[in-house]
Amino acid sequence: MDLPRTDLSDIPDLRDIPERWPAVGSTEHFKGRIITVVEDEVVMPGADGPEVVRREYVTHPGAVGALALDGEGRILLLRQYRHPCGHLLWELPAGLRDVDGEPMWRTAERELLEEAGYRADTWHTLVDTFQTPGMSDERVRVFLARDLTEVPAEDIDFVRVHEEADMPLAWVPLEDAVTAVLAGRVHNALAVSAILALHAARARDFADLRDREAQFGPSAAGDA
């Protein structure tokens, strides 16, 4: 099987392309509550022709985030403890896609309410990412949430526990958040990509925002 390297000197339409190289074997090494660790035997180009190589990766249900922007140009950030990296990180309200059939923006709407206590009347797709494509298939979509209303705590049917039990909330001017990202003070990948995407979108007067129901990539029909 020939898998040549493609040399593109001109890219008229810059976009990622769905593709799956053939695997001749697959082993599931670990299955947890959320993630699964898999090792595939994948046919890839070699120095003397195609060869089979092993690639370990994590399967993940995907996640969504909500970047809330108020009328004063401030964004809402939460600080949350993250055990794997041993940090308190400034993040967006976000969560797993763990409800079958729930539209992504509805999941983000729920997370914004449960984690931050806000509802938004206006939702747009802001940015889509594969967070760690060399080791996981996790897809993340961040929505821009505007026209906000604060919801009294007694009207929220959700109990915050564990990492979510103590999450300070801050309204940060977007320019200050961008400065924090570029200065290396904010590290959460979802927050970093969303903050910079919002900064770019605002500079374009929000003309390029996608609908909240937009698909995640050309092969993701049904992911809206």
Please work out how many helical segments DSSP would assign: 3
N to C succession of SSEs: EEEEEEEHEEEHHE
Structural class: alpha+beta
The average pLDDT value, as a whole number, equals 88
Would you kindly provide a written description of the structure presented here, covering whatever features stand out?
This protein is α+β, with helices and mostly antiparallel strands. The protein contains three helices and eleven strands, in the order βββββββαβββααβ. It has helices at 104-116, 174-182, 189-203, and strands at residues 23-31, 36-44, 51-59, 63-68, 74-82, 87-91, 94-96, 118-130, 139-150, 169-173, 210-211. The chain has a five-stranded mixed sheet. A hairpin with a 4-residue loop joins strand 5 and strand 6 (87-91). The two termini are 35 Å apart.
